[in-house]
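your task:
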Amino acid sequence: MFRGIDEVDWASLRHAHGSAEDVPGLLRGLTSADPAERATALDGMYGAVHHQGDVYDSTLACVPFLLALAVREEVPDRAGVVELLVSIGDIGGGSGELPTRARAAVRAGAEVFARLCGDADTGVRRAAAGALVRFDDRPARVLALLRERIGVERDDEVLTALVEALGVFAQRYRTAGDTHAAEAVRLLAELSGPPYGPGLRLAAFGRLAACAPERLPADLVPVVVRLLRDRSGQRARSGPAPDRAGTDTLAGRLRRLRPSDEEGSQLLRTLHSALGDRVADRVALLCGQLTSPDPLDRCNAVWMATGLFREWRTGHEEPVTLIGNQLGAEEARLHDAAVAVLVELFELAGPAADPLHTLLTYRPELRIRHRERGGPTLGGPLKALARAGDARATPVLAEVLAGPVVPHDLGLVVPHLGRAAAPLAPALRRRLAQVPPDGPGTRDRAVPLLSALTALGDAGSVPAVLRLLRGMPEEVPGRDAVACAAVRALGAFGDAAREAIPDLRWLLETDCAVVAADALWSVTGEAEAVLPVLLREAGDSASGPHRRAAAADVLGRLGPAARPAAAGLRRMVASGDLWERVRAACALWRTAGEPGEVLPVLRSAWAEHPRTRTAIAGCAAALGPAGAPLHDLLRAELACPRRHLAATPGGHGIHTDLGLVRICREALVT
């Protein structure tokens, strides 16, 4: 297995953490009789030799030894070795010499994967199927081997892997008139019908949807839902899945994070992904999954729903209602999944507001989440209800504010409640007054509270804000962040914050200059007092693009009063980075009143950089009827069913998209 390993100059090779001289020990650890030692070695391979999917010269040197390990029956856990080889070889799609050489090195061992398709170990057979179709360049032989193995295989999980591999094969060779791909599609269509089992048929449907959607049945959704429930029944009769606790290593933790029904999750993920823009079918399929008697099916559906919601603007009401129904589930995994998804949805979680409120009423311990590290945070159900804008969150937040422990992120959800959060202002004000100006946690405690009071426009908070602003020593960590948040609050209070004018004038010469100028103008309405500062900040090459773009924003809000800045704004439009060009173009339009010179910039940014669309739509909305030259873009955006940041992970992509849609509608109404 390790012939020649000592002849490699490992010390001269590198991995993610430096010298690769420890790699021989990791390779030998993969053969250990001790499961914990094997897991630690595999952990080390992923953590150093193949760190975050990267490859190094040491990775290439490992490939021959990994291939040798994969075929030795006395080596335990060979399936993990094959999976590592597949991951190393798949990086070959990237650019550069090392990724290309990595794929070539694994491809050179394709004969190993062909042998392993008939291995005695079911895990090895399962992993080898996917490796074979990715790295063996002999389509006729690969297809014949897949057909043969499907005919003799008796393990359901391996059969499913073979069908998945057949689909990958069909996509790899999908060219006009390719007979190998056509035969693979024919086999998939055959496997999607009786007498094959439900898991196998589901796998075949998912792969057909990706490579030959015309071969899918017209009644796909009811057929899939029925197969899903048949499969659940089979799983229930076969008893619970084996415990996958594993060792306390990276590999072990990753195994524990996988869904309980990993195969079912993968089957449905493949089908949903292949259905793509068939949103109505995907919604119907989700609803079928979410009403399954099997909690594992429902849990898979909850997680699957996030992909749909992140990408598409329609069809969320019924699935969200059904996800809300899972909040009463006894299964902790299902309950936690439902909460996590609803937190991500912001106002889209509205259809689940009733069960969220009920949960908070009967399980008050869920209002605050206590963490081992860091301070307490809002519990998921309360955060989801508040982010949804449901007024019933207000009294619950008031109770939390009155308690001994106040989560630092409570203030961040208040803006989502709008006017319904007004009753919270006195308590927020009192909490802000209790924040020590010179404490180590001042920033974490003060900034969320200031954000909430800013959103509420609570003029009664002026004394508490000024106490904090004036009392912070220079050396307090995060002082600038707190000062800027305090200044934004004062600007939101407008004329009621006139006693802060001396403080704001002093801050015009600090790192908070742009925010202070904006607030001073909001309080006094005197553009001449802030214009020199904004001109200085917008033209300062040393201040950074973010700060210059922020100065341009404020100049735009000044409108015609900022016309002396036109020349500087034109320079930013011509030579700044993306955000500078967009913000400066919007400001120039709002100050000079002529769109002709900036429209090409805004239209180009809108098409090529979707993240700029909210700022551009906001400009059109601020201009009122004068923003008509951009209205065609806004109408097209509203007509598009796909979110403009569909590829963005996390709920903030959804929230940002909802904000864009709202601004577009407001702009077209004016």
Notes: Residues 220-238 form the longest helix (19 residues). Residues 585 and 597 are 8 Å apart (CA to CA). The two ends are 74 Å apart (CA to CA). The domain at 279-367+377-387 is CATH 1.25.10 (Leucine-rich Repeat Variant).
